[in-house]
Request: fold
Amino acid sequence: MSQMRALVVDDEPDLRELLDITLSRMGLDVVTAEDLSSARRCLTEDPDFALCLTDMRLPDGNGLALIKEISRDHEQIPVAMITAYGKVDDAVTALKYGAFDFVSKPVDLEVLRNLVRTALKLRQDDEEKAAPAKVSGDRKAPPTSADQRAEEKPGDEKSLLLNRLIGESDAIQRVRQTITKLARSQAPVLISGDSGTGKELAARLIHDLGPRAEQPFVAVNCGAIPSELMESEFFGHIKGSFTGADADKEGLFQAAQGGTLFLDEVADLPLPMQVKLLRVIQEKTVRPIGGRSETRIDVRILSASHKALKPLVEAGDFRNDLYYRLNVIELHMPSLNERRSDIRILAEHFLESIGEQWGEPPRNLGKDAINALTEHNFSGNVRELVNILQRAVTLCEGDEITREDLSLDAESMPAEGSFGERPDDRSLDDYIEEVEKRILENALREARYNKTEAARQLGITFRSLRYKLKKYDIE
Reply:
């Protein structure tokens, strides 16, 4: 393999020399340019660069123009912006224009090396994916139909990963295409969408398809951490820094070092924590509680919220500057109501999974059941669909699930008011699980607590009943 090359574009001779020396010591052949016209000439003569570093301000124009051109004409080249210290807006703009990442002046060499390693890993992944598959012997395989080729494609790791997003609708196809592009960038991504649409799955795919795939993926639900413990959870603490700190604790940022930190339900962060999070994202350093020094971090931030953040910003409940740092690029996950053509495919997939988990043959969906699911208004999306199917498998007396087994009519008729006003304001998951638990308890009572008879009445195996009793802690 020939030596990989890097293009450095900057009008400051001292900085060009520093970057040249640093990248050369990393094994790169460095080509330098002092302005836009020189950089364009280099790209025209031989565009096979492993990465490009460009300054924002150049004698004959703006580095953003070069980023746009490279993103358009040489998308295989990761390009990073060199910005002036504190120019966060410039960095955000560069990321939106297609920059892979950014580094601030004065250049921190460790930050630069991490950026370069990530870019080279991306280039290496591209070359491995582009390499022709090995074929035994010299004879070519006979031609196959398009359907057969599509079935053989799962050998492609990227296709296998993207297949975790089940469905063939236009909406989900667009999501797959966007995720593929986002995986090449290091820009922060805000994943929006209703509850149950698969926001964490999308975040994992962005991570798994990108150059950080071999590093940690750390997911945290921001609404599940008590506010008084939040700073310790995110940044860690030093032994003895407060009452109860009996040992040093690593924070979530340190745990995700080199990889990805996924902030789910980021709208639930209290304002004081938002300030601290913004500083960490801008400075790329963390200081544990009680610590005397800051630790440099290399973490990509992905976030998600089922709440629209813009109204929260306007109401003063979410910081405007943090919103724009997290929402450099937005990925919207469509609801099931936006992709109804996928409901049958999803239902059949989940029925197969339920059968495997419960140790019994998967049930089939009757035509009336398919129609009912397709017409149903899903407020809980994929998560709701899974719960409906689990309940249907429990109630089904044969091999085929009917419309009645789905109990959608009962589900759409809550005890009080509209379905959104469930008693005690419980979540949809809690509500559905309580229904299933009540069905199990009634069946046990009718069978006089004979589990074998209760399983027979419910039309499920004894093993499935035992699993469900353990799940709901029913004695």
In short: The chain has a mean pLDDT of 84. The chain is about 45% helix and 15% strand. The radius of gyration is 27 Å. The chain has three domains: 5-128, 156-334, 337-471.
